[in-house]
Write a structure and sequence with these properties.
Layout (H helix, E strand, L loop, with lengths): L1 H7 L2 H10 L2 E4 L1 H6 L20 E7 L6 E6 L7 E4 L2 H12 L3 H14 L2 H25 L25 H16 L4 E2 L2 H21 L5 H18 L3 H10 L3 H14 L10 H25 L11 E2 L5 H36 L13 H29 L4
Parallel strand pairs: 5-6
Antiparallel strand pairs: 1-4, 2-3, 3-4
Helix pairs in contact: 4-8, 5-6, 5-13, 6-7, 6-9, 6-12, 7-8, 7-9, 8-9, 11-12, 12-14, 13-14
């Protein structure tokens, strides 16, 4: 068993997958001399120290039809990577973007605005659970990401984070299959088609984490399996939690205090990592949405589909598509504007409270500043999304 786990965590396994997909790490000396290029990570380069790709600049090699990426490196002056399959390259980069927190924070509300707030609530609940579990496991287990070389690193923001499990794989699996399990009781659709879409989307996101060099095969498999286990354990209680979340008088109190407590008690590391801030962002967004859904229930306006469930899918007419696009643009503008205003105000107050210089951007990494400003910002975003946006749509005749 240990041998299998070691094999699945081997960075060379990731590098082989990248090369199969047409992505190669190329030695700069061979590149500049115009000689045959060999992927880094082979025995010839095995004694080289780890080099991370930092900041890429496009340039065109005059002696080749391939386009290369140039970057700074810890171990050499000009490492390059070569893309031989641009279709897979852009497909996996797009798929990787589907797993980022900012994608879910901006796109999950679209389900609330255009389809069914019930489904959005279910998805946000499961997304928050799996992301918190995954982020904490990363910083408790502390297993490193794949080394470069031999792996090509296409992302740098999260490279300081640990690897196992892949939270991209966790989120994609949880979101896809939570929707698949929850939607049949709400909307009419062909289950087999939904299953195919869920498997395809979650698989693309999982594979993209290998292609971008950010996770080992073990990280990705573990992430997907952990999400499946969490869904299996919690599925019998989804209805019970829905009832509590919408009707209990202590629901908004729990929704604010529990995630704030989890944010402040997040595991400490000996270096700065984006995991605490990202986790606080997710917990704050969930807190705001949860309180907002409770408020809507108390006000008697939940914006859920009326009539006998499941309802038919909306007809995709030109008018329906234009109204949906208008709701998306206005909704995203409202959330982004809210985020910017509240973030600015919170940082000013916290910088003044802790007597920090306004231009000291590194202070945002301190827990006493990072946690309250991110939690307050995204709690407000969640409140605006769940309470205000649909009411504005009604006033504008878009809902």
């Amino acid at each position: 068993m240990l041998e299998l786990l070691t094999y699945l965590h081997d960075p060379e396994l990731v590098a082989r997958f990248q090369r199969r997909c047409g992505l190669f790490l190329v030695d700069s000396a061979r590149h500049s001399q115009g000689s045959t290029r060999a992927p880094l990570g082979t025995p010839e380069y095995a004694d080289k120290p780890r080099g991370q790709l930092k900041g890429r600049v496009d340039h065109q090699d005059n002696n080749s039809n391939y386009k290369y990426k140039e970057s700074g490196c810890d171990s050499c002056s000009k490492p390059h990577y070569e893309v031989r399959n641009w279709l897979l390259h852009f497909l996996f980069l797009f798929s990787a973007g589907l797993g980022h927190e900012i994608f879910y924070i901006t796109c999950l509300p679209c389900i609330h605005w255009n389809l069914d707030p019930f489904l959005c609530r279910r998805l946000v609940n499961m997304w928050t659970l799996v992301m918190y579990v995954g982020q904490v496991m990363k910083d408790v287990l502390k297993l490193p990401r794949p080394l470069s070389p031999p792996v090509v690193k296409l992302e740098t923001r999260v490279d300081a984070e640990y690897g196992l499990p892949s939270t991209h794989a966790m989120a994609a699996t949880a979101i896809s299959f939570t929707f698949l399990l929850s939607a049949p009781s709400r909307i009419q659709f062909q289950f087999e088609v939904g299953l195919l879409i869920a498997v395809t989307l979650s698989s693309l996101v999982c594979l993209s984490r290998l292609y971008t060099g950010m996770h080992s095969v073990l990280d990705v498999i573990s992430g997907a399996l952990i999400s499946v286990i969490l869904m299996f354990l919690t599925y019998p209680y989804w209805e019970t939690f829905d009832h509590f979340q919408l009707t209990s008088f202590i629901s908004p109190v729990v929704a604010l205090i529990l995630p704030l407590f989890l944010s402040y008690t997040y595991p400490e590391l000996d270096h700065y990592s984006t995991t605490r801030g990202d986790t606080t962002t997710i917990l704050g967004a969930w807190a705001g949405c949860s309180v907002g859904y409770w408020v809507n229930k108390q006000l008697g306006q939940t914006f859920e589909p009326q009539g006998v469930l499941p309802v038919p899918l909306p007809t995709l007419t030109a008018n329906a598509l234009s109204r949906s696009a208008a709701r998306f643009l206005l909704g995203v503008m409202a959330l982004v504007g809210t985020r910017q205003i509240i973030k600015t105000l919170c940082l000013r107050v916290l910088y003044l409270w802790y007597m920090v210089a306004k231009n000291d951007y590194s202070a945002r990494r301190k827990k006493e500043i990072e946690v309250p400003y991110k939690f307050a910002t995204y709690t407000t975003v969640g409140l605006v999304n769940s309470i205000l946006v649909n009411r504005v749509f009604i006033l504008l005749g878009l809902l």
